[in-house]
Amino acid sequence: MVKRLVLINVVVYFLQILTRDALTPWFAVYPVSWGVLEVWRLITYQFLHGPILHILFNMIVLYFLGSVLERHWGGKKFLIFYLCCGMMGGLVYPLLLAVKIIHPHPEYGVLPLVGASGAILGVLAACAIMFPNIVMIFYFFPLPIRVVALILTLLAVAGIITGENAGGEAAHLAGMAAGAGYVLSGPWREKYKLRTRTGAWEKKMAAQRDLQAEVDRILQKVHDSGIHSLTSKEKRTLKKATEAEQERQRL
Question: What is the mean pLDDT of residues 56-63?
């Protein structure tokens, strides 16, 4: 899955070059265009990039750290996680603009949001929590991944405060928060799933006990009064119990 994502990003980047960036108006996140609910942009903006270093950094991190998570989770779960982290960045950017926590660029106004950085930093945050012994080369210096995550968080906060690429930095932070939140909430989610499954199993067992008690009553009635004494509802109950027993035997 990681290799496919890298390939799609590279192909789209070359399409941007060949079309002279004609894709951005259609697929980037433009907060001012959200009146028509162009929700596809939350996905598509993640595959658009700006300068070559933008996509180069993102794809290097995706290839190495994304592969770690894919091996741990599997391709499908990783893909959902990756896209959701990116979507969080695409949601936060227009939201912060709307409530005026961040402001349009003083020279260029409201800029479109492009890039996989929110998703990539979500991956980095997840790896920093799950695999803290990973060492990354950060500007030619080997650093523990948690230190890199902290540095990038501080840089994003500084970018928002100073207004330098505030929208992009907000998306970065949102992606990191989504990635960290997903991993940290793992124990709670597992307990919830277990409780839900246990409750469903108990309900199933209770329903089977009730059905068996009703079947026993009906069979006793047949023994005492004959099968012609059964009502239509009782006959349906016997048929249901017979089908359930046949299904268990097939399993």
Answer: 94
Are 124 and 61 in contact by the 8 Å Cβ rule? The answer is yes
Q: How many degrees, rounded to 5, is the angle at CA 241 between CA 236 and CA 247?
A: 125
Terminal-residue alpha carbon distance, the chain: 34
- SS3 of residue 144 by DSSP: strand
Q: What average pLDDT does the chain have?
A: 86
103 phi/psi in degrees, rounded to 5: -125, 155
User: Mapped to the 3 state alphabet, what secondary structure does 82-101 carry?
Assistant: HHHHHHHHHHHHHHHHHCCC
How many C-beta atoms lie closer than 10 Å to residue 89's C-beta? 33
Euclidean distance between CA atoms 242 and 206, whole angstroms: 18
CATH class of 2-184: mainly alpha
Burial of 38 from C-beta contacts in 10 A (0-12 / 13-18 / 19+) = middle
Average pLDDT of the segment spanning 224-242 = 81
Answering whether pTM is above 0.85, one says no
DSSP label at residue 134 = -
Domain coordinates in residue numbering, the chain: 2-184, 189-250
Amino acid at 145: I
Q: Is the distance from CB of 83 to CB of 77 less than 8 angstroms?
A: no
**E runs forming strands in the chain:** 135-138, 141-144
Contacts of 91 (CB under 8 A, 6+ apart): 42, 174
